[in-house]
Amino acid sequence: MPELPEVETVRRRLAPVLEGRTFVEVEIADARLTRPLDPVEVARELEGERVALVDRRGKYLIVRFESGRALLVHLRMTGSLLHGERGQLPDDPHRHAVVRLDDGSDVAYRDVRRFGTWLLLEPADVDTYVNARVGREPLAAAYRARHLAEQLESRRAPIKAAILDQRTVAGVGNIYADEALWRAQIHPLTPASTLGPDEVKALHRAIRQALQAGIRRQGSTLRDYRLPDGGTGSAQHEFKVYGRGGEPCDRCGTPIDKIRVAGRGTWYCPSCQLYSASRPSRSRRQSSV
Q: Could you tell me if 180 and 117 lie in one domain?
């Protein structure tokens, strides 16, 4: 599933080709993409819109128009956007929408599993909709460890489940959660509310580092994720734990193990990321000092 690094990479690649361009013609062939709204009606509403900014919040790609409206694209599991000259994109049975731009190029949306969504919002609804579903941006300059601590202090769920919640921290999914927890040396089953101040600081730093590493490698292509030019990301070649079950930990050499947390396959190092079932909550530890 595309996470923050993948969506940010797509945003950076699409911004130069979309910003300042007008949607001349829009075809949406899959009703799932815009449901419950009629795809023909949504396509008609998009035609004539001029792009002011290609933005991102968490895993949402946000195409902001000069009219103030915005198209929110969520790639979900297998969605991708491809850009090319008109008529030059290859035939694809998984292509479900095409936007024809005023410079003679096309942006095509493909989605094998068909879980992705397009949502056209009016100016007054854009920020309200996004802010209700997405927490702080972890790579923003103003994001501090205290913001993460505030989100975790009352959470009894395992820390991995807590940071997968998009309202806790925007854009972190299964891959980068595992990578961040390895960097912070925190076991994924550790109850979120039991993390001490130093652990929260380490996790805050690790989340940022894991996401930045993913962006530097233009995201991770494990199966369906593609860049708008059809290329692939290479972050998967740098993973520390994700998908590396049985391989030696880069830090200590212990074989990486796999468990399930919050219903998700989870990779971690049994030696570097020790688990204790008897950890006191953060509030109890602070009150005992």
A: no
What global pTM score does this model have? 0.94
The C-alpha atoms of residue 170 and residue 67 are separated, in whole angstroms, by 26
Cβ neighbours of residue 116 closer than 8 Å, sequence gap 6 or more: 33, 73, 74, 75, 76, 77, 78, 79, 109
**Boundaries of domain holding 120:** 4-133
> Which tokens belong to 42?
């949504």
CATH of the domain at 277: 1.10.8.50
Tens of pLDDT along 245-266? 999 999 999 999 999 999 999 9
Query: How far is the C-alpha of 240 from the C-alpha of 141, rounded, in Å?
Result: 25
Of 12, 205, 264, 285, which is the active-site residue? Answer: 264
Q: Which is the catalytic residue, given 57, 59, 69, 244? A: 59
201 is catalytic: no
Confirm whether 90 is domain-assigned: yes
Catalytic annotation on 59? yes
